[in-house]
Design a protein that fits this description.
Elements lengths: L3 E8 L3 H12 L2 E6 H4 L11 E7 L5 E6 L12 E7 L2 H12 L3 E8 L5 E6 L5 E6 L5
Parallel strand pairs: 1-4, 5-8
Antiparallel strand pairs: 1-5, 2-3, 3-4, 6-7, 7-8
């Protein structure tokens, strides 16, 4: 499967409501995972908040979203990123190297607690990017 390019939306505590709304609008399959399910010590106040949500629609749209993690201030203008994801490690690493060159890395591209390799950066033009290299499924 080719890498996916899609919006990743950040919400101020209402990601579940927003993602369920987008499911009503576009249809499709919605998967939601909370901070509590994923672990990582986000704290009890975040246990029911959405760490990662993904809506895949019959028309081929993919929308991802989450509640802002602890320590990340929510503000209009920083409530989105462009997400690149897939299993093509060499391709995605090449994109990461080019996007992060001359930009600012906020999360280094490395293995995360959910098992995938993930990183976040803002390119030299101020566009926020998330790159997730999925662990191949058996």
């Amino acid at each position: 499967m080719a890498p996916l390019l899609n919006p990743y939306l950040n919400f101020d505590g209402n990601a579940r409501e927003a993602m369920e709304y987008y499911k009503e609008v576009f249809g499709g399959d919605l998967n939601l995972h909370t901070f509590g399910e994923m672990g990582g010590g986000a704290g009890q106040e975040y246990a029911d908040k959405i760490m990662h949500g993904m809506l895949t629609t019959p028309d081929g749209f993919t929308i991802m979203g989450s509640d802002g993690p602890p320590g990340m201030e929510y503000a209009s203008g920083n409530n989105f990123a462009v997400s690149l994801s897939g299993e093509e490690e060499d391709t995605l690493r090449r994109y990461w190297e080019k996007l992060s060159d001359g930009g600012q890395v906020s999360v280094p591209l490395e293995r995360q607690m959910w098992g995938d390799v993930f990183g976040m950066c803002t390119d030299r033009f101020g566009v926020p990017w998330m790159v997730n290299i999925s662990t191949p499924q058996g």
